Structures are given as C-alpha cells and as structure tokens.
Amino acid sequence: MLGRLMVFHSQMQPLNNYMSFLMAMLVEDYLPVAFFALLALGFAPLAWWLSRFIRPHTSSTLQRSTYECGTPAMGEAHIEFRYQYYIYAIVFVVFDLISVFLLVWAYYFSELSDTAIMWMLIFLTIVLIGVGYALRKEEKLWI
Q1: What is the pTM of this model?
Q2: CA 120 to CA 101: how far, in whole Å?
Q3: Residue 134's closest CA among 107, 78, 102, 95?
Q4: Are 41 and 48 in contact (CB under 8 A)?
Q5: Which residues, including other chains, have CB under 8 Å from residue 88's CB and lie 6 or more apart?
Q6: pLDDT tens, position by position, for the chain (143 residues)?
Q7: Within 13 Å, how many C-alpha atoms sit on residue 63's CB side?
Q8: Which end is more exposed in the chain, N or C (fewer Cβ atoms within 10 Å of the end residue's Cβ)?
Q9: Can you name the residues that pair with 71 across neighbouring β-strands?
C-alpha cells in the first residue's frame, strides 16, 4: 500500500510543480496591475482625507456667493431646467450605440450562426418594444 502511495505521489509531483509555476507566473504578471488598482482605488479617499488638513477653515460671504464669471450675480441661483433636453441626450446616446451595434451585426450577418441571429432579433424586439412604450407614454412628440 505504501508503494502505491509513493508511485501516486511521484506522478503528482510534476503537476504540483506546474501549478506552483503557474501561480508564481500569475503573481509576477499581475502584481503591477494589482498595485496600480489599489493605488487608483485609494487615491480619491486619500486625497479627500488630506484635503481636510490643507483647506482653510474660515468662511466668508464671498465664498458663499454665486460665481457668475466675474460679473455680479443677479437673481436666484437655482433655476428650473427642462428635463426633456437631458432625456433627448440620453435617447440620442442609446440609439447611437444601438446603431453601431446594428451596423456591426449587418456587416457580419452572413457569417453569424443561427443562435447569434436569434439573439439579435430578440434584442431588436426589446428595443422596438421600448420605443413603442416611450412613444405611447409621451403626450406629445417633442423629439
């Protein structure tokens, strides 16, 4: 029994060496990436924490006033914006991305599998349902 265990252990030795080699290679290759990821994630909290010690702690009326590009402020600083302009911009970006996706799909249409074509048709159906819902929800078409 001990002989069989020794044979099994000797057969597993190359696999263990290979796994340790892979782990060492992964650590060696991804250590700089991990370091910069930690540096990037830690920069904002560290800058926020250090700014508490650098910034002045006094407040004046000039600091609390609204800045109007060098001219004296007139009227109320808080005005109401029409949200439709922002929605228009979001809709534009969404349809711009969809059109790029469709152009790539149309270019490679002959090379696609049946599954890829099915998923693209499902995607188009969902987009058209969303457009129909948005147009029905609007009382008047302002776009």
Answers
A1: 0.39
A2: 10
A3: 95
A4: no
A5: 143
A6: 444 444 444 555 565 676 677 777 777 788 888 899 999 999 999 999 998 888 877 888 777 777 667 777 676 666 777 777 787 788 788 888 888 888 888 888 888 888 988 988 898 899 888 878 877 877 555 55
A7: 5
A8: N
A9: 68
For residue 82, count other CB atoms closer than 10 A to its CB. Answer: 9
Q: What's the token pair of residue 137? A: 């929800």
State which amino acid sits at residue 119: W
Place of tokens 């263990």: 16
CB < 8 Å & 24+ apart, contacts of 23-32: none
User: Cα(57)–Cα(67) distance, rounded to whole angstroms?
Assistant: 20
- Distance between CA atoms of residues 121 and 134, nearest Å: 20
Secondary structure (DSSP) of 13-53: HHHHHHHHHHHHHHHHHHHHHHHHHHHHHHHHHHHHHHHHH
